[in-house]
Amino acid sequence: MSDAVPTGNGGYNFAYLDEQTKRMIRRAILKAVAIPGYQVPFASREMPLPYGWGTGGIQVTASIIGRGDTLKVIDQGADDTTNAVSIRHFFERTAGVATTEQTVAASIIQTRHRIPETPLQEGQIIVYQVPIPEPLRWIEPREAETRKMHALAEYGPMYVRLYEDIAQFGQVTTAYDYPVVVNGRYLMRPSPIPKFDNPKMDMSPALQLFGAGREKRIYAVPPYTSVKSLDFSDHPFTIERWEQRCAICGADDSFLDEVVTDDQGGRMFVCSDTDYCRSRQTGQAAE
Amino acid sequence: MSVLRLVDVTPAAEEAPLLSVTGVSRRFGPQIACRNVSFDLWPGEVLGVVGESGSGKTTLLNCLSARLRPDAGRIEYQLRDGRVAELFELSEPARRMLMRTDWGFVHQNPRDGLRLGLSAGANIGERLMAVGVRHYGGIREAAADWLDKVEIDVARVDDTPQNFSGGMQQRLQIARNLVSHPRLVFMDEPTGGLDVSVQARLLDLLRGLCDELGLAAIVVTHDLGVARLLAHRLMVMRGGAVVETGLTDQVLDDPQHPYSQLLVASMLQ
User: Fold this and answer.
1) Which ipTM was obtained for this model?
2) In this structure, are strands B103-106 and B84-86 parallel, antiparallel, or unpaired?
3) Closest chain A residue to B124 measured between Cα atoms?
């Protein structure tokens, strides 16, 4: 995928990581793809940014990116937020690859908190930055025990949490990082995307990779794999709805951010996916 | 009463014991906690294990309930499908499944057996969800039903047991264990730490449930009064070994071993 010649990028290897590290991570990725939803441990490296800023996602991206790739980085759906800009800039400098803000033009999309509204295509890879990979972590603090629970598919306690939500609030209140079962087997945390995005993961034609740098885990959902959000048969999984449309492009099918516009209580709802919003605006302008 | 109950046991059930224990021993370093214990437990039978603190009662109970691996001996259990399996020869998934469906474990301290941060309903429903029940209404119905059975106000289904009294917590723990219709329940000092009137009520409830559901139970207690009320048969332990076994009334009214005599004699009348 890449060669080891430093190319005027300040003495760094192509895409920052050394080739041995990339091989190690690729091996973990292959294993993760082979067992959908299973968390594969890997020797996460020290990266030039703090844990929690996307070290896992960057390592995965660095291991799979090649010179011919086009990279898109989003943070909360937006291409122009600090995290997205600096990670995009990081790969521009260390790999010299083309970058884009258009979902359709990207071959690799690294993301934090969102899946683009534009449906992903075959051949695309989406890389998620994951803070805590273990879905059972707040239920069972012992790592040995959670691994055993995964091995034996003992996911009852997760349902206890959903039960508790419905009993207390009348609905499941988990709105992001909503637990899913991958391929009918492994319970998985989809990283902190809103549950609005969960249905997009199901049977997606794109390869989905998840990297958790601090927790040193990689997991994956291969293309066309079932991803089912947990629910009760009499309380089916639902996604968020808004009464407004996007104030800029008028979309009624995208995830909306509420933006406070002044201190008089003024607010507007706009698409969180900036590329989607922009493409709709230019489409409208062309008409 | 116990004699009557023993006669009650159906002939089919009498063909094979539910739990068959042979030569179970367990030591902790040089300390022998339990030595060469053997007995059979029949379906629907309540066995009391009595003895002073440190006599190995709890270690024995932990071995029998597969929470602690014995150093020697066999523990054979008759599964629901009639097969007889040695506990520690079963695969771990099978053993864990057994522990949360076919068995119950009532801890002395309800805090060990309950999830205090979860509502009463969730505590009862946990076993159901663990075996794959995915219907919220059904789980809730079962929870309400069991709260009623253990005499807790159904209106408290969404309250956390943190705010329950000791007796209520203990009753909730019992409901949480019985919801999966176990055939065998282990109880470690089920009335320990409760005041006398609450104890009496709990014992009454336990005896009723055991009768109604045909539960087999192993009850560890140092309280001979509890043993007399609940157990059909008694096993007296001392220094890790069983010194006397027999029908409850027989052991309590006519103890043979000097230690049993001492125990009975020191009972408050």
Assistant:
1) 0.81
2) unpaired
3) A160
